[in-house]
């Protein structure tokens, strides 16, 4: 657990439009909010009592709204040695990616320890999937203008989260991916101790913002639509997020790479590196075959197209190599069409979405696990799973991946380079002694990311947030 920047007050930074007068205005805002609570009787703010205003402050649109507050006089109960109530908030409530899997592990793990956990998610991508959420907020919908307005301020989420706060009365709120809720969820929960885990690019992460756009990985230039989206994110949504983000009690992120990006983008905030944890799985014996496995969401930024190109370069020198692709996503149809000849030759198989136990089993059949991402991954769960089952990894040299993969347990290559990827795979496949040595190093690395130690760290941060 690594504290990077413990300061709570922030200087003006980068394109922050609030300027150096932010501190004084924050104090005025808090005083006005306190007077408003007093006018309402000094208790929690009900949804019908909330007053939301959209202001222009130093050239930026900023939403001001009263936060919901605990009914008790103290901000939270003492967390040491007692069961606590944690409200978890995430955009998607089914396991479509690593962030969602992490929240499910947190929920299950904390409940095993006797804590009460309530998860709120939107219903986006929940159709036909098993959800771990206790409560669903309707996903943002409507015509283009309505969706833009609701991403800027989603009153339904503000009201429903506020009602959950009043009912559940959490000791701490743990926010995860919040793009489907927008700044409204930060405003609603601002009266409680807040812990925010940053799993990937968000609307307010300026230096990572382009990776939220569909054309970022597909071309050297953004599409006209994505140029407009980028402008909206940077000059409308980002300024709406920043005042609320700078009041969050603690910000966590699994990798140093993302911590550095957040520090550049937001300034001096209470920022901590807390690597994700994972349930223990036993290492698997190494397969005799040349078998490469990819597991993840099928979208352009994951680099599966690059992996298919690398396989074509590899086949002339390793005709027996096979690739298994596990996962689903918007790019699946295009990828299957582009690999039709490889599928017909039984060199590639697309397995689709698999349950977690089946993913682990499939990773255990690999000689090497490939992570050919184009975008800067944070701390991908599949990498942790590959470490646990004792598999070498060949990964792109981007984001937090170099914190998980090194020369002892695999190889790093330039993102988007099919040639480098093919060469790295060729250097490992067929060399059983090397693969076994690297697999043992992966198992050793996995020891750093035990679930129970991760939960210990979260309990520590909840306690510190409540004491702030």
UniProtKB/TrEMBL annotation:
Residues 1-51 are annotated as: Disordered. Keywords: Glycosyltransferase, Transferase. The keyword Lipid biosynthesis does not apply. Residues 288-439 form the Glycosyl transferase family domain. Residues 12-38 have a biased composition (Basic and acidic residues). GO terms for biological process: carbohydrate derivative biosynthetic process. Residues 96-280 form the Glycosyltransferase subfamily 4-like N-terminal domain. Coiled coil: none annotated. It comes from the Bacteria. GO terms for molecular function: glycosyltransferase activity. CDD domains: GT4_PimA-like. PANTHER family: SULFOQUINOVOSYL TRANSFERASE SQD2 (PTHR45947). This is Glycosyltransferase family 1 protein. It comes from Streptomyces cyaneochromogenes.
